[in-house]
Amino acid sequence: MDKFIVNGGKRLCGTISVSGAKNAAVAILPAVLLAESPCIIENVPNISDVTAIFRALEALGASVKRIDLNTYEIDPSCVNSFIVSKEMAQGMRASSYFLGALLGRMRKAKVAPPGGCDIGLRPIDQHIKGFEALGAKVTIDSGMVVAKSERLGGCSVYLDVVSVGATINIMLAAARARGMTVIENAAREPHIVDLANFLNSMGADIMGAGTGVIKIRGVEHLHGTNYSIIPDQIEAGTYMVAAAATRGDVVINNVIPKHLESIIAKLREVGATVEEGDEYVRVSMDKRPEKCNVKTMPHPGFPTDMQPQFATLLAVANGTSIVTEGVWDSRFRYAEQLTFMGADIQVDGKSAIITGVDGLKAAPVKANDLRAGAAMIIAGLIAEGETEIADIEYIDRGYELVVEKLTAVGADIKRVSDTSFDYVLKAN
Ligand code: EPZ
To answer: Which pairing describes strands 13-17 and 63-68: parallel, antiparallel, or unpaired?
Structure first.
């Protein structure tokens, strides 16, 4: 397995361009199954989660053609299977979206439970509640989730928890159901809106995405479309925090500043200067960050997917901050890794008490999950000396060209394979 070696202590300065949003792509690509003719999808991030979805689409019978670096043509007309096997689902958090998409298209789906990051229990009871309300029968067969229905009919579903995945899955299954489906207490993340815009561009009739109530009037047919995925809010946020953490000055291009409001607000609270343009933000910082408290919440609250990265910035802040995780049961596994680098973090249930230290020290650490991995990169950028980050396959799941993008703004980061890593160790 590869590792990253980060030689920290360098200010990041320059421009970074953000890729297409992972969490929109992993919903939109399975949604192509609902169309009856080819779709051209632009701004697709080249990350391993997306590669896994393409493999699954091909195994189902769809054809996937790369048109240029980030543009793909997907023809779902030859799809002839409704099964996403364990092998296909492995390493892919979004395998459950194949349930909604296949149910909507074929009225049956058999899908292995999701793999991906270990950030606590990841139940799908609200997805199942939605499928059942639409008229599907859902069972478990040899560890696979099976959903079947003779006829999907519009329904009203109230989500007991605000769930991104359940909202998306119900939208997928309802887009071609008969009649009107209403999702109450729906998630409002930018990728929910992006999926609704994508489905509407295929001929769907979806209103209210981005609010707590989404109405889906089912249509009989959906056609192919050309669509460009929104920029990745979390990738943008990660580079914004990296800029502040290295007391740098970075323009982050190809963003929708509205999607970054909570991150911008918190960066300003710790003392960073954030300038907002139409499609860019510029983050600069010339002093030690101030302490601040953060609580993660569903959108438009502060995103849980930015929690480890922001906590890393607070690890070197002036004073004590409290970070509270309001979405997942367990998302502080990275804290131990930060303590190996000299951070002072006490985790107590859903909160972490972070007492800022003057600086971090380079150390061998690992990525416990995707965003924990991003946090380790930021920690490595802060720390003087050489930080080695293991298990970077998690980072590859969600950050396109992370080494190239950071190098372009002055970071000293490289990817080494295990063998060259041994060499680096010997050489030192
Ligand atoms: C999505 O996961 C994202 N993944 C996650 O991104 C993100 O952390 C999460 O939303 C919250 O924003 C994708 O979009 C692929 P949820 P999802 O359903 O849909 C509980 C990243 O780093 N819940 O909104 O799986 C659940 O336990 C990641 O990019 C139920 O109780 O999250 C959690 O506490 C990882 N029953 C809360 O709801 C259900 O049926 C939110 O989960 C579903 C969820």
So the answer is: unpaired
**Ligand 1 binding site (Cβ under 6 Å of any ligand atom):** 22-23, 26, 93-94, 117, 119, 121-127, 161, 163-166, 187, 304-305, 327-328, 370-371, 398
Give the tokens for residue 214: 């989404």
Q: How many residues does the chain have?
A: 428
Domain ranges in the chain are 2-19+231-427, 22-228
Q: From the alpha carbon of 127, which atom of ligand 1 is closest? A: 40
Nearest CA to ligand 1 atom 31: 123
Residue 155 appears among annotated catalytic residues:
no
Tokens describing residue 188 = 């409002």
Q: Is 394 left (phi over 0), alpha (psi -120 to 50) or beta?
A: alpha
The answer to whether domain 22-228 has CATH 3.65.10.10 is yes
Threshold 0.85, pTM exceeds: yes
* Residue 32 and residue 98 in contact, taking contact as beta carbons nearer than 8 Å: no
Pairing of strands 344-348, 351-355: antiparallel
Looking at domain 2-19+231-427, what is its CATH homologous superfamily?
Enolpyruvate transferase domain (3.65.10.10)
Question: Per residue in 296-337, pLDDT tens?
Answer: 999 999 999 999 999 999 999 999 999 999 999 879 999 999
